[in-house]
Amino acid sequence: MIPSVLPTYNRAPLEFVKGEGSWLVERDGRRFLDLGSGIAVNALGHAHPDLVAALHEQAQKLWHVSNLYTIPQQQRLADLLVQHTFADTVFFTNSGTESCELAVKMARKYWYDQGDSDRVEIITFEGSFHGRSTAAIAAAGSEKMVKGFGPVLGGFTHLPWGEHDALRAAVTDRTAAILIEPVQGEGGIRSLPDQCLKGLRRICDETGALLILDEVQCGMGRTGRLFAHEWAGIAPDIMMVAKGIGGGFPLGAVLASERAASGMTAGTHGSTYGGNPLGCAVGLKVVEIVSAPGFLEQVNARAGALRQKLEALVASRPEVFEEVRGSGLMLGLVCKAPNTDVVKAGYDNLVITVPAADNVVRLLPPLNITDDEISEALARLDAAAVQVETAASSC
C-alpha cells in the first residue's frame, strides 16, 4: 500500500523537532551539528531571533493578499536587492524551480519581442541542477532527471562542463541564452573558474545572448560574496535566487537587467503566493543581515578556518577522503569511500552533511557558524571517517 506521503524521498531515519543556530535536536534528544542547513537554505541557522521576530511581527498583521495589490514588504525587498546587485528589477517566486521557469520564459520572450522568434535555444551544462519542473529537468538533461517523464521540453543544448571550444561552437544565431551555476551544488561542488565566467560574459556580449546565472544554492553569501559571480567581476543579465534568501521560509526570486526583462509586461507571468508579506518580511531581514558591513568578512574568515581544518582531515584520512573543493562555506569533500557511507557515519556521530554527485559530501553550514562549532564539526567528521575506515577494514 502506498504511504500517505508520496514515496519520492529516501529519507534518513531522523526526526528533528527543534533547531537552535547550527544545531538540530532529534526527537530522542540527541543534538546534531548541522553542516547541511537544509541544503543551503538556513543561511543564518535555525530559529535566528531576528528572523523569528520579523515573521512574528508580520504574522500578527497580514499573511497574504495576492499580487493583485501592492505589497510594501515586497517593494522594500526588491529595492534592497536592486541596491546591492546588478539588477534593475525583481520578480518573487516561492522556490528555485519557479525561478528557473521564469528565467527561461524571460530569455525567450526577450528575443520574441526583438522580432527574432527563432532564437529560443538555451545552452546548459552537464552536471547541472535547476529544479524538478519540466523546464528545469529539460535544462539539466540528464537521464536520471528526464527518464520516464514523456516528451522533454525542447530548446536546450547540453554541453560538457568546462569545454570552451564546444561552447563557442554551440553558440549560434538561435542561441537565446547561456544558463549555468557558478558553483554546481548537486553536481558535486564544482566551481567555475573566474576566467571561465568572464569568458561566458564575453561570448554573450559578442553574440547578444543573455547570460543566466543559477545562484539558488551558491548565492546569498554562501561563497563569501553576496553572490558568487561577484568574485569574477562580471554581471549576468538574469539571475535565479532562492534557498538562502528566505533563511528557511520558502522564497525565491528572479533578478534581471532592464534589457533582459523588457518583454515581461503585465500578464506575461504571475504567482499567487510569490512575494507575499510573510516571505518578504523574512527575506528582507535576511538580506539586511547578510549585506550589513562586516558580515561577509566574517563568512570568509570562517570559511578559511573550515577549509584549513578540512585539508588536514583529508590528509589524515586518505583512505576515506581525496580532496576538498568549493569556495566560501560551500565546500565538498571528494570521497574515496562511498559518500553515502560517510553521510551515514556522520549521523552516527551526530553531524549532518549532504551527499552530491561525483562521490562528494557537501558541507553547507550556517553562514554564522562559530569557530568553536567548526572545531566540533571537524571532530565529529573525523570520528565518522574512523567509523568508515573501520567498517571497510572489517569487510
Could you please describe the fold and organization of this structure?
This protein is 37% helix and 18% strand. It is α/β, with parallel strands linked by helices and 395 residues long. It folds into two domains: 117 residues, Aspartate Aminotransferase, domain 1; 241 residues, Type I PLP-dependent aspartate aminotransferase-like (Major domain) (Aspartate Aminotransferase, domain 2), CATH 3.40.640. Helix 2 packs antiparallel against helix 9, helix 10 runs parallel beside helix 12 and helix 11 packs across helix 12. The longest helix is centred in the last third of the chain and has 23 residues. The radius of gyration is 21 Å and the shape is globular. The chain starts with 15 loop residues before the first strand and ends with a helix.
CATH first level of the largest domain: which class?
Alpha Beta
Number of domains: 2
The rounded distance between the terminal residues' Cα atoms is 36 Å
Coarse shape: globular
Poorly predicted residue ranges:
none
Derived from helix and strand composition plus strand pairing, the structural class reads alpha/beta
In the CATH hierarchy, the third-tier topology of the largest domain is known as Aspartate Aminotransferase, domain 2
Q: Which sequence of SSEs, written as H and E, runs from N to C?
A: EEEHHHEHEHHEHEEEHEEEHHEEHEEEH
Q: How big is the Rg?
A: 21 Å
CATH homologous superfamily (4th level) name of the largest domain = Type I PLP-dependent aspartate aminotransferase-like (Major domain)
Tally of extended strands? 17
CATH architecture of the largest domain: 3-Layer(aba) Sandwich
What's the mean pLDDT score? 97
Helix content: 25-40%
- Specify the number of helices: 12
Work out the strand percent.
15-25%
